[in-house]
Amino acid sequence: MKGQEWYQADDVAEEYDDKRFSRGGQLIDRREKEAVLEAIMPVEDRKVLEIACGTGRFTVMLAHQGADVVGLDISAAMLQQGRRKAQDTELAGTLEFLRGDAGRLPFPDDYFDTVIAMRFFHLADDPEAFLEEMRRVSRDQIVFDTFNRFSARSIYNWALPMGSRLYSKSEIAVLLAKTDLTLVDVEDDFLLPYGLYRSIPNSLASPLRTLDEAIGELPITDHAASVSYWNASVR
Prior knowledge:
This protein is of the alpha/beta class. It has helices at residues 4-7, 10-21, 25-40, 57-64, 76-87, 127-137, 153-156, 169-178, 194-198, 202-216, and strands at 47-51, 68-73, 94-99, 112-117, 138-147, 181-189, 227-234.
């Protein structure tokens, strides 16, 4: 995984949510959570694994909705932040945080209904092997996101602390076929890159987001979106 040492630092974990999901970043957080919920509804009683769960944004949300969730991450500091969130929330389902490697998941085959990985695919050293491992432990569904090659993301990609790999839709289609996964749905979003939203207050980000969504509904903009949310089924 790219940027592994940086990611595991205590100070990074403490500031992670504030730096990425405050100010205009709240719009990103909201949209990502909508994408996850739309993909796996109904959530209640589903057995879910989130790989690279970080500070538990999705794990806590899903457990609150009634899912039985395991959040796995390589960073002990990130997991600690997630546990603190869970303590402050009344959960309808169950939630467990485990430290582990996304490339070697410590679970038997077909153990979960759904496996999700948000904000991680672009960091995977071997995306095909990563999808294979996700598929191995899922008996039903895989949900993940990718950053897109032909988008504004490429303009500032070099400046990201961990770096990231950008994908075309055709590359992901090939990877899904190689790992025997069937595409159920893909949603494209954010013509403007995440970094812009994070750097401005909500009062400016909200009208930009409205414009972004309106332009994004045009068919000609499909391949210009910064991010794609993928929902695939296990055959």
